[in-house]
Amino acid sequence: MLPLLTAQQIRDADAYTIKHEPITSVDLMERAAKAFTSYFIQQYPERTKPVAIYCGTGNNGGDGLAIAQLLHFSGYYGVTVKIARFSDKVSDDFEVNFKSLQQTGISISELKSTGDLPQENSDIIIDALLGSGLNKPLTGDYKKLVEFLNGLEKTIVSVDVPTGFFTDGEVKTDAVTIKAELVITFQQPKINFLLPESASAIKRWQAVDIGIDDDFTLSLNSPYQFVEESDIRKMLKSRHRFSNKGTYGHALLIAGQDKTMGAALLCSSASAYAGSGLTTVCVPESGLTAINTYMPELMAIIRKGTKLPEIDWKQFTAIGIGPGLGKDEHALAVLKDVLTNYKKPVVIDADALNLLAAHKILWKKIPTGTILTPHMKEFDRLFGDHENWQQRIKTGIEKARELEVNILLKNDYTIIFTPDGKVYFNSTSNQAMATGGMGDVLTGIITSLVAQKYSPEEACIIGAYIHGKAGDELALPDYKNVIMPAELAKQLPITMAGLLKQKTGASISRPFL
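RESULT FIELD:
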C-alpha cells in the first residue's frame, strides 16, 4: 500500500529526508524538479511550443524556477518565467534558484499586482504559484491571477498541486483554483486528489518519485492507503490441485423482483465468475427461467409471494443481499430473516441499504464484519446529509468503528473504511463503467470472495480492485465510451489470471481514457 499523507506529514517527511539522507533542501528541490521535468517531457515532447512558468516566491515557486532551467537546457524554445511578487515573503530555496536562473538568459518578468496583466502567448503554462502548504482560500491578487490564467483556456500543468486547491481538509465548492490539464505531483497523490471535489481542478494527475524516505513515511502510520497492483497480487490466492467446488465456498445472493431480475442475474453471475465454488441466487418464482437461461451453472432458491424462502443457512459461506430486492414489506421481512438467522458477515447493498436507513432498529442485528456497499446517496441516507466528501470520510471512519463493519463507499476512487480505522482508496476503474448494474456486479464479486474465505477487509480491497481492473482492461485499449456490466463480469477470470501470473510487480499509475 502507498501511504497517503496530509500536508503537515509531507513537510515532516521532507524535513526527515533532508536531515537523514542527508541532502540539502535546495538539492531535494532540484531532485523534485528533475522528476517533474522528466514526466513533462514525456507528455509534451514538442520543444518548439512556448512554455510560460508562473512562480510564487515560496518553495513551489522555487520548484518552478528549477524546472524552467531544466526545460531550457533540454532544448525547449521560448521558456519564460513570470514571478508573482505579491508580498515580501520569499523562501531561501527560491532565492537560490532565482540567482541561478538569472545566469541562464531565460526571460524573467515580475508581477507586482494584477492591475495590468501582460498578454500571454505561450501554448503551455506551468503553474508553480502556491503549493501544498495553502490553508485558506485564494483572495486578492492571487485569486485574480488564477482567474486570468484559467480564462486563457491554455494547457496548464501544475507543479505538485493546482494553486488554490487544498491537498487535505474540506474543499469549498466555490473555491477558486487553477484548472489543470495535468498535475505532476511529488511522491504520492494528495488525499483530496482522490475525491470528486478535485474534478474541477484536476483533469489527470501523475505521481513522480523524488526519493522521500520510505521508512519514515511508513512510520507515520497514516490511516489513508492507496491500493496498488502489487498489493492485490500478494493478497490473491491461487487455486491448487486436488481442490473441488467445495474448496471455494458457496455464495448466496438474495436479489431481484419481477421487474428487476437483471440485478439478480448480474450479481449472481459475477459471483460465479469471481470464483465462488457454488453460487445460489434467491429470486422470485418468475425469475427462475431467466436464471436457468442466463447461466445454467447457478442454483436457485425460490421466493413465492409473501412467504419467506426456506433457506438452509449453514450451507452458505457468504450471503449478499439487496440488488433489485425492493423496499416493500416482503423485502423488509427477507432482510430481517437474514439478519436473524445468519451470524457471519453479510454483504449489504442497494435496496437492503435503503431498508437499513429506514429501519434503524435493524442495526442491532448486523453481524460483526458485515460489508456495506453504498454509493454517495445511499451513504447519506444511512448516516445523514454531508456537505462534502471530507465529511463523508470522517463519518465513514467513525461508523465503521462504532458498528464494527466495513463500509465500501463507491466513488471514482472507491473508499473502504474498516473497523480498525483504516481508509483504503482503490486505484482502478474508469468513466466507461458509469452505467446501471456495475454496483450489482461488485456486490457479487465481494460476496464471492467472502465465500472463498477472504476476510471481509480483503474482500472489499480485492473486490473493488479487480472490478475496476476488469473495466480498465475492457475500456482503455480501445477508448470505449461505455462497457456493459455483464461484459465486465465475464472479464473477471481473465483479469484475476493476469494478476496471479506474477506475485510481485511494480506499481502502476491510474490509467485514464
